[in-house]
Amino acid sequence: MHNIRRRLVGALCAAAVALGVGFGAGIPALADTGSSGSSGSVEIYLPIPTPAGMQALSAAMTQVGRPYKWGGTGPWSWDCSGLMQWAFSTAGIRLPRTSQEQARVGHAIPLSALAPGDIIIFYRDASHVGIYAGFGQVFNAYGPNGAPIGFTPLNHWSYIKTIRRLG
């Protein structure tokens, strides 16, 4: 089963390159248009980071150890969405201010395609956001006030509302 999965991912990556699809972009699936003229296409996402996501992750990680502060927008303290907003701005991407608004930007990504640089919105009320750093770790600003920001294991979170890919 593992070899089949590896070959499938390899074939999808080769198809992405052949189609000229950028890193982390959706690949439109081929579909019969039928008599109605609708394409019937579906987006397939691969676990490949976007350049913008990697740049944002790199920027966010320069803030390791700075204190969490609710409502913080930097540069000396951050809340979760303020850190994401600033980090993505370094990559030329303007994010809205709150995690609830950030949950609606970019492309929704399934957990199986999670890649470093994707943002993850946590809890049913979308009240927390972090950036996936790879190796099962999320880089995030997480309270209480004064707690140093840094890495939290992905499996620490009980509920993922959505995963978003930007750039």
TrEMBL record:
Residue spans crossing the bilayer:
none
Protein origin, superkingdom: Bacteria
Cleavable signal peptide: 1-31
Residue span, NlpC/P60 domain: 50-167
The record's listing under PROSITE patterns reads:
NLPC_P60, TAT
Q: Which InterPro entries match?
A: NLP_P60_dom, Papain-like_cys_pep_sf, PG_Endopeptidase_C40, TAT_signal
Keywords associated with the record:
Hydrolase, Protease, Signal, Thiol protease
Family, according to the entry, reads as follows: Belongs to the peptidase C40 family.
The name under which this protein is listed is: C40 family peptidase
Q: What is the lineage of its organism?
A: Bacteria, Bacillati, Actinomycetota, Actinomycetes, Mycobacteriales
